Amino acid sequence: MMLEQEIKIPASPAASYRIKIGTDILGSLWPQIEADFGKYSKFVVTDENVVSAGHLKKLLGQRDVPTFVISPAGETSKNIDTAISIIETMEQAYLGRDTLVVALGGGMVGDIAGFAAAVFKRGVPVIQIPTTTVAQADSSVGGKTGVDSSLSKNAFGVFWHPAAVYIDVATLATLDDRQFRAGLVESVKHAIVADSEYFDFLESNLDTVLERKPDVLEKVAHWNCKIKGNIVETDPGEQNFRRILNYGHTIGHAVEAASGFGLLHGEAVAIGIIAAGLIEIELQLAGPGGLERIRRILEKLNVPVTLPDDLADKDLIDLIKRDKKAVNKWPRFVLITEIGKVYRRNEQYAVEVAPDVVEKILDRL
Amino acid sequence: MMLEQEIKIPASPAASYRIKIGTDILGSLWPQIEADFGKYSKFVVTDENVVSAGHLKKLLGQRDVPTFVISPAGETSKNIDTAISIIETMEQAYLGRDTLVVALGGGMVGDIAGFAAAVFKRGVPVIQIPTTTVAQADSSVGGKTGVDSSLSKNAFGVFWHPAAVYIDVATLATLDDRQFRAGLVESVKHAIVADSEYFDFLESNLDTVLERKPDVLEKVAHWNCKIKGNIVETDPGEQNFRRILNYGHTIGHAVEAASGFGLLHGEAVAIGIIAAGLIEIELQLAGPGGLERIRRILEKLNVPVTLPDDLADKDLIDLIKRDKKAVNKWPRFVLITEIGKVYRRNEQYAVEVAPDVVEKILDRL
């Protein structure tokens, strides 16, 4: 005898969230959050750099809101242990499922806070208030969350869309120069994979961007959100098309891990972008012109475009194998044929590249 | 200037999964899993009790499949540290997103394995092969996953529906008597909240169930899956109706935690069910007749129906406050008006009960 029972999981309805972009909006944001999310208890996650920069005080004013300050700031804190500390702090504050997590900070804060919200008592909402170029361009939008294990990046994670995103480009004024420039690599990446017009814009306006003029920063933020939003709406669960956002990331993640997080994410991705360009030329998918333009803009951002001497190729191959997008133990790569156009093979946006080609390119980087 | 961008999250389509119930099907299951999930690498999560009982060997035969054996078996291992060890073992085996997690064991194994699958590299599928009465009745179906923090139960968790469930009631033959009986409490709970006919059936057939006759065990498993499936289909995300499955659990979870996991889940829930019954009588929602029938069936199962002396009421109140379903720091309770009928107030299935009523009942338990 074999009995059977089918369990039907109903469709979940379409949803949406708003991104608001402005200058100097942080100080007046809390009343709006209270208006939009009044029925929730609030819990803020931020880091010590954000506190030092005065952003937390600007957001909360005199309000007494339970807050977890991640220390030290930076990628080394983006791990499962920090996520556990956040969850246990929420428990100690007797917070329940009626909690709204407010992530105030860079990509690291957003990724951890998003993950903590997603797994806290089977999920509570999170809003993102990104304060760095990388978070405003990329990580605050799209619902990816993740923390690192002791072995690799984002070993733990879920898709968990934010309930709202608020971008105040004034927070970028206090960002240290290296962080500011490295974060712009994700903007360049958006242009490379999706929009040659945006690439032209970045090329023409890079000086103004680097001077941190609010008007142009708002435009950059808006352009990033439009590109990323369009991609995420098409493929929220990263089945195929969304993978184009991983351009430069397969090697980038490995380089970042190999550096012991001595390199910033954007710096590692810059190296990964150059590596992708070299692979494209090696495989005769693209001519050298696009890569030259990309290299120039990255050099102007003052991010590395070659592999630092101390990163042995052997480690990189091993780290590439641990990439979370690995299928059959060797990850696929996103490649372009020209700026704004991603290469597809058999309808796939992430394609196989033979390991010996990758090793050859790593030698040349 | 304030720029805005709306991100639309498309609806996710309806889905379904199959539960297959039989006797002695474990030995022939792997070829079916390979047929249904051929493109995935497999990773088995189980515990040392399941290995000792011979179930792992029966499932895998001579096949070499990477496996994580949780040790010690039991609720004390159901924590975030174990989940981390599982994830890192998967990484060390170079497993990627094309991995199928196979959970073979009781509720603890299913909850941890489901959680690990849900958060591994932002989610991989899991199939459940429950080997205990509690897991076959309840936890393998419905997509709840969770692990404990150092402070409370299921502090970490997500909803993650299994890709399939295979129930072999022959695995219950080797289950120790205490586990077997405690697990049947969830079956009694299903009957209490959803189906008085099923309650009659359990009352009439309890001796045969306790003799572990395969035919009646298959019927019990099927009845449980139908009841639970119907509830989960109506309200997969536990917005309201699904809460009826938490009958007896608000106090049950607190009792379980207070006992330092000296009590089994089902034993603690049995006490919680009696507590709910006493609250119903105290609030004049129900007469004493139903509670008497429930008490008799629980006594026949040989599970506790009174609070052990060593559990101080004070701790319980504090632990109840940490319940994950807490709204405004004090959780709601599921109550019935008669066997098979849940009480509703303002269309809500989980209702407020004043703390002093709960304290009074705890004194009386």
Detail the poorly predicted runs of chain A: none
Helix share, percent of chain A:
40-55%
Helical run tally of chain A: 14
Largest interface: A-B, 78 and 79 residues
Can you walk me through this structure?
Two copies of one chain form a homodimer. Chain A is an alpha/beta fold and 365 residues long. Chain A has two domains: 19-175, Rossmann fold, CATH 3.40.50.1970; 226-364, Dehydroquinate synthase-like, alpha domain (Up-down Bundle). Chain A has 14 helices and nine strands. In chain A, the strands form two sheets. The first copy, chain A, has a six-stranded parallel sheet with strand order 2-7-6-5-3-4. In chain A, strand 8 and strand 9 form a beta hairpin. In chain A, helix 6 runs parallel beside helix 9 (214-234), helix 7 (177-194) runs antiparallel to helix 8 (196-210) and helix 10 (249-258) packs across helix 13 (313-321). The radius of gyration of chain A is 21 Å and the shape is globular. In chain A, 54% of the residues are buried. Chains A and B meet through strand 1, strand 2, helix 4 and helix 9 of A and strand 1, strand 2, helix 4 and helix 9 of B. Strand 2 of chain A pairs antiparallel with strand 1 (2-9) of chain B.
Describe the secondary structure blueprint for this structure:
The structure is a homodimer of 365-residue chains.
Chain A: E1 2-9, E2 15-22, H1 29-36, E3 41-47, H2 48-52, H3 55-60, E4 67-70, H4 80-92, E5 99-105, H5 107-119, E6 126-130, H6 133-139, E7 164-168, H7 177-194, H8 196-210, H9 214-234, H10 249-258, H11 265-282, H12 288-300, H13 313-321, E8 336-338, E9 341-342, H14 355-364
Parallel strand pairs in A: 2-7, 3-4, 3-5, 5-6, 6-7
Antiparallel strand pairs in A: 8-9
Helix pairs in contact in A: 4-5, 5-6, 6-7, 6-9, 7-8, 7-9, 7-11, 8-9, 10-11, 10-13, 11-12, 11-14
